[in-house]
Structures are given as C-alpha cells and as structure tokens.
Amino acid sequence: MSLVVIVGPPGSGKTTIGRALAESLGVPFRDADADIVAAAGKPIADIFVDDGEEHFRALEREAVRRAVAEHDGVLALGGGAVLAESTRKLLADVTVVHLRVDLAEAVRRNEIDKGRPLLAVNPRATLRRLMDERLPLYREVADIEIDTTGRDAADLAAEIRAKLAVRTVVVNDAEAPYPVLIGHGTVDRLPEFLGKAARVAVLHTASTAALAERVGSLLPDGVEATLMELPDAEDGKTVAVAEQCWEALGAEGFTRTDLVVGVGGGAVTDLAGFVAACWLRGVAVVHVPTSLLGAVDAAVGGKTGVNTAAGKNLVGAFHPPRAVLVDLDTFATLPRRDLAAGLAEVVKAGFIADPVILDLVEADPEAALDASGPVVAELVERAIAVKAEVVASDLKEGGLRAILNYGHTFAHAIEKLEHYRWRHGDAVAVGMVYAAHLNAITGRVDLVARTRSVLESLGLPTTYEPGRWDDLLKVMKIDKKNVGATQRFVLLDALAKPVVADDVTAEQQREAYERLTA
Ligand SMILES: NC(=O)c1ccc[n+]([C@@H]2O[C@H](COP(=O)([O-])OP(=O)(O)OC[C@H]3O[C@@H](n4cnc5c(N)ncnc54)[C@H](O)[C@@H]3O)[C@@H](O)[C@H]2O)c1
Ligand SMILES: O=C(O)C(=O)C[C@@H](O)[C@H](O)[C@H](O)COP(=O)(O)O
User: Fold this and answer.
1) Whose CA is nearest to atom 5 of ligand 1?
2) 55 is a catalytic site residue
3) Which domains does the chain have, with CATH numbers?
4) 423 is catalytic
5) Lesser CB count within 10 Å: N end or C end of the chain?
6) pTM for this structure?
7) Interval 456-481: pLDDT, tens
8) Ligand 1 contacts CB of residue 265 (under 6 A)
9) Interval between CA 267 and ligand 1 midpoint (Å)
10) pLDDT per residue as tens digits for the range 216-266
11) Among candidates 300, 256, 299, which has minimal Cα distance to 276?
C-alpha cells in the first residue's frame, strides 16, 4: 500500500470516511490535524486564538510534510492545508481523494462538530466562501473526486477503494488499446465497460459463483445478466463447453453489441474469450480474473482457446478483451497451492524480463504467498507490465511474443500427459527448470540453481517422472512455436535476455530431461 491523502472542505467527512477507507484497506489511518494538536499540546481553536492563523498554517505545512514523508496508509488533511503551494507540490506525487459535499450538508455537519475556529461566526456564509475559494485547489491536487452528500462512510469507502486502482496498465494493442485495472474492488468498475450491451453473459465456475452474482447485480436497469456456470478448471476448457455457451447465447438472442464477462481463473477467461471470439465472429469480452495466474497472464493479451485431444490450447483465437478488472480482493479465497501456481508465471516474467520480480520473491517468499499483502500487489503489477508491453507489440506471436512461452514447451507436454490434472503453473515451474537446463547445456547461461531455489521456496515442483521422455518428445513436436519439422525453444542468453532457439539438438533435449529427473 502506498499513501492515499484525503482532502476536502470542513464537513466533507475526511476523518470519518478516511478511517472507514483505512479499515477497509487494512492500512493505518493518520490525521494531520491530530498531529498538529499533539505537537502544539493544545486544540486547534486555541492555536488560532493564542498564536493566530499564520502560525497554525506554518505548523500545518510542517505536519503535512512530515506525514507525507512517513505515513503508509490513509492520511486526512485539514480543509485549508491545500492553501500552501508547497503542500500542493508535495501532493503531486501521491494519490489524492477529494471529498465534496453540498453546502447545506456541510453546514449541518459543522453544527454538530463545533471545534472549527474559522466557522465560529456566520458558518453558512463562511463555509460557502471557503468552499468556493478552495475548490480549484482541491481539484488541482485530486486524482479522484467523490460527492459525499447523503451517503454513509462505509459505502463511500467501498467506492473510493474501487477507484483506487493500484495502477492502470494500458495494453496498447494496435487495434483497440484496453485498460487493465489493478486494485481493490475494481470489479465494481464493470459498468464503465458495458458499451451498448443490453445483455451480459457472465461465465464462471462454482468457485466464483458469488462474484458472478455480484457482477450481475452491478448492471444498471435495462441490462440483463445471464449467469453460466462452467465445469471447473481444465474440464471447462473444451469445445463441448464452448458449444453449450453458444447455444445459451443463441437462446438469449445475444447480439453483436452484447458483452461476455469471464469471472474466474485462467481456464474461465480462456474459455470466455474463445466463446466471445467466435460468437457472431466476435463480441466484446471483459475479464475479471480471480486467480493470480489469470490476473498476471491468462486474462491479459488476447489469447483465448480450448484444449482438444491433439493438445493444450491448440484451438483458439486472438481476441483481446475490452478491459481486464484485476480485483486483488478476489485472491483472498484462492487456495495457497493455486496462488503458488500463479507465482510460477510471475517468476517466468522475472526470468524473461524483470529480474526485480525474482529479487522480491527471493527476499521474502512468504510475503509473495500472502494474497492480501503489498508484495503480491507489486508482483501482479510488474508481471502485467511485462506481459502488456510484449503483447502490445506482437499480438499474434509473429516474433517477440514467443518469449512469454518460456518453460511452456515442456509444461504443455506434461499437462497433456497428465490429462490436464496438473495445475498449469506447476507444469510451468517444471518447464522452466527444463528450460534452465537447456540454457546451460547449450552454453548460454546457467540459472538452474536459481530457478530451482526460487520455485522451491514457493512450494512449486521442480522435477518430473523419469522414463517418460519418448511420450514428452512426441507432444513437444506439435508445439505451436515449431516451424515445420523444426522445434523452437524459448531460452535465455542471460537473465532477462530471451531468445527463440531453433538449433537445440535431440541429444541436448534428452540430456536436459535426464538432468531434470536425476
Ligand atoms: N490466455 C493466456 O494467455 C494464458 C496464459 C496463462 C495461462 N493460461 C491458461 O490458464 C489456465 C490456468 O489458469 P489458472 O491457474 O487460473 O487455473 P484455473 O482457472 O483452473 O483455476 C485454478 C483453480 O482455482 C479456482 N479458483 C479460481 N479463482 C478462485 C478464487 N478466487 N477463489 C477460490 N478458487 C478459485 C478454480 O476454480 C480452479 O479450481 C490454463 O488453462 C492455462 O493454459 C492462458
Ligand atoms: O500469452 C502468451 O503468449 C503466452 O505464451 C503466455 C503463457 O504463459 C500461457 O500459458 C499461454 O496460454 C500459452 O499460450 P500457447 O500459445 O502456448 O498455448
């Protein structure tokens, strides 16, 4: 969590709403006015009477400077703090929420709270003047503006939380750029992405049924939701399941302006994207990934598809979403094993492009496994940034995008041999160890020990059964990256220097397997 600063006129609810927001985010709350009172040893009204407003403003500037430097959480400022240019400059680098309120309600709230020296005489006229004078200053510093009139604190805290996207990564897809909103409560932003939809098909599994219901309840009057429950995990990623969805869309009279929403792990978003890509030759899809793996990988980038008897993801389409809503709250119910599986793809992003990811995981693997902690939020953001940059320049995997397949040649072969009963992330973990052996064997870089140790620290598998090489090789020979009879592997020349190699010999491949299973 980083700092969120609340500003607004007297009576806008900065302290009450700030506290409710901090509680809902699970972070500490701090009140700059309380800091001034503590430092001066007397109430603000007494500082005004004894020392004058100018002295109070000097104390306030210092209190705000200190709090902005020290605090990690929610910080409420006094109504006049934004008068100081130095304070406004300080706020340019942090997230600022401006709470508005109408005059009548502000007067009412200030009548209850009598401790405001500037409002001692003729509060209505004074408040109107202060609000008019300060409004442009609040707006100058604010990232988010919310009207608090007639609303309760918990409700407002929930709305602010939803708007406090940790970050919006824009995937600059050449055809239609789309945002990936990462934050708490971002699912509530769905109504912004409905377009002209009159019907919304919400695809989910049993594990995400409650969230799918919530998605349905977010739709405005006149927009109908149809919830479709899919079989769990890879059992849902089949042509037969896709066909059932198409039948249901047909029965609903689903048109080109309607919307598919995928609420679930990567299996759901892959299937939802595929259903949307094919229905009427392409309707919009919004993804609400609920697994870490879905958030950092499957929901971003527009690859959709199903598994068939021939292999993993061999049937599908490139169909980028209209938006991706990564709601960090959804990871709270994700089993630890699935969280770890998602971290395998995060670690992959570390090896191919952003080694800071590896540093973060290695520094504290337990923190990386704490779904509600700040490390997971940073890892999510970093991994999505890696993926967004790659897919923006090469949606259809003409070149660069293949690097996202690091470890996947071997992983997909395991998944097929295991009849899709292995978690994808677990298979990718083993696949990365295999690729690390190939890196070393082909004289590139030796990252075997580091790969094993970072994955093992997360409880991920790093080895596979011996004696299955022939079966594995057969599957690897129909990998999508292959060109004709030439196998291609994503390898690393060095950390964060991926290459696509087409000269890995049969002996080298086998040797990597022998070392992996030794
Ligand atoms: N399209 C792409 O670019 C891309 C990228 C990576 C992976 N994938 C695909 O994604 C799939 C793997 O995704 P995954 O790891 O999310 O698997 P998954 O979708 O099977 O989900 C894993 C398990 O977690 C459960 N789950 C999901 N969210 C939950 C939540 N919030 N609380 C409780 N349980 C929850 C699911 O019901 C499932 O049992 C694979 O099919 C893989 O091929 C696609
Ligand atoms: O988005 C990509 O491109 C990837 O390769 C991401 C992979 O992590 C992911 O598992 C993807 O589903 C694999 O795609 P595939 O084309 O090899 O099936």
Assistant:
1) 298
2) no
3) 4-164 (3.40.50.300), 166-334 (3.40.50.1970), 399-517 (1.20.1090.10)
4) no
5) C
6) 0.80
7) 999 999 999 999 999 999 999 999 99
8) yes
9) 5
10) 999 999 999 999 999 999 999 999 999 999 999 999 999 999 999 999 999
11) 256
